[in-house]
Amino acid sequence: MKEFSLKEKQDLLKSARGSIKKYLGLEDDSSSILEEGNLSLERGIFVTLHKQAGLRGCIGYIYPQGKLLSSVRKLALEAAFRDPRFLPLSREELSEVDIEISVLTVPKRVVSPYDINLGEDGVIIK
Q: By the 8 A CB rule, do 38 and 1 touch?
């Protein structure tokens, strides 16, 4: 996977916020973003909402469930309105919320624990 461009990163964040705005009945300005380039990759992702540096919602997939842009839009709604640890996000809170999107690499099997980069790699244990 090539590195995400600044525009692709901005488009992902704009799409996540746009999905939430649309759900709340506010104007969504992200409809022109196309599912192309890195945004069309199939990857595991997490969408995390923070409010005043505290967790406000987080939902994700370790394994890909579709193209990245579509998944970000869906998971932004899940994190904002369906994370069972929190009440649904209100219109008033939206301006106070920061959105973080974590795009995962495709999981691969390792032979030895020495193949894992501590502090960088995630681990799935079966």
A: yes
Q: What is the pLDDT of residue 26?
A: 95
Per-residue b or e along 8-35, where b marks 16 or more CB atoms closer than 10 Å to that residue's CB: beebbbbbbbbbbbbebeeebebeebee
Among 125, 124, 126, which residue's Cα sits nearest to residue 61?
A: 124
In whole numbers, what is the pLDDT of the chain averaged over residues?
93
Whether residue 1 has pLDDT greater than 60: no
Q: How far is the C-alpha of 19 from the C-alpha of 121, rounded, in Å?
A: 29
Q: Label residue 57 exposed, middle or buried (CB < 10 Å: 0-12, 13-18, 19+).
A: buried
Residue 125: other Cβ atoms inside 10 A: 3
